[in-house]
Amino acid sequence: MKKGDLIGPIYFCILVALIIIFLRPFIELTKAYPLQMGFFKVALLGTFGECLKMRLRTGSWKITHPVQRFFVWGLFGVWFAWVFPLFSGGVERELISKKLWFSFAPQFSKSLWINVLGGYAYFMMLTHEYFNRLIEKQGLVSAQEFKEKLDARVWFPCLSWGSIPMTILWFWLPAHTITFSLPGHFRVLCAAMLSVALGFILTIKK
Q1: 168, 175, 204, 206: which is closest to 190 by C-alpha?
Q2: Who contacts 164 (Cβ-Cβ below 8 Å, separation ≥6)?
Q3: Alpha-carbon distance 49 to 163, whole Å?
Q4: What mean pLDDT is predicted for residues 126-130?
Q5: Half-sphere exposure of 109 (CA within 13 A, CB side)
Q6: d(CA 21, CA 36)
Q7: Which of 17, 148, 185, 187 is deepest in the core (most CB within 10 A)?
């Protein structure tokens, strides 16, 4: 093992340790500033996921345009801070309480809506892939160019367990069921942890 291999684990352990040590202030800040905290939680962990992916692929922790990638992950953190309350409250107040949806396993129902029936998971991953293309090209990418470079066997419906639509069933559906089982102030943090896994899922090859 090289000394450089310790960079990632140390970084991740420090982040987790800081959250545990300062848990109460962390919760209070999340409640007081949900959007700002969502930005930094996902930016810090999502960027780490990018670095870890690069380390496993090339042997180096360095990623191209790290500031831009950090900012994009942060924007997704703000998006998460909006989306989780939206689906949680919507399923509870507008569907279950009005008897428009079954009341059994509400956490699973929220995950089902956010990932499958609401289409959020696929759209979110597709949007992130588009931002990746913008960063790689350092310029605008037309819709036609973006579509042509997407691997159909990865991004469009097929029976392969490694395809993006299938990951919604075997990964995101159970993962977000756990996420919705947590208190609201921990959900974006859980999504930030999952963003590390997203870094891998978005780079599935043929």
Answers
A1: 175
A2: 122, 125, 126, 154, 155, 201, 202, 204
A3: 19
A4: 92
A5: 16
A6: 20
A7: 187
Q: What is the pLDDT of residue 155?
A: 86
Q: What is the mean pLDDT of residues 182-192?
A: 93
Contacts of 130 (CB under 8 A, 6+ apart): 141, 146
How is 9-32 classified by DSSP, letter by letter? HHHHHHHHHHHHHTHHHHHHHHHH
- List the domain boundaries for the chain: 3-201
CB 84 within 8 A of CB 184: yes
**How much is the pLDDT for 190?**
93
Long-range contacts of 48-52 (CB under 8 A, 24+ apart): 48/8, 48/11, 48/12, 48/15, 48/196, 49/195, 49/196, 49/197, 49/198, 49/199, 49/200, 50/199, 51/8, 52/8, 52/196, 52/199
- The SS3 assignment for 170 reads helix
Q: Which two tokens stand for residue 80?
A: 């998460």
pLDDT of residue 165 exceeding 50, the answer is yes
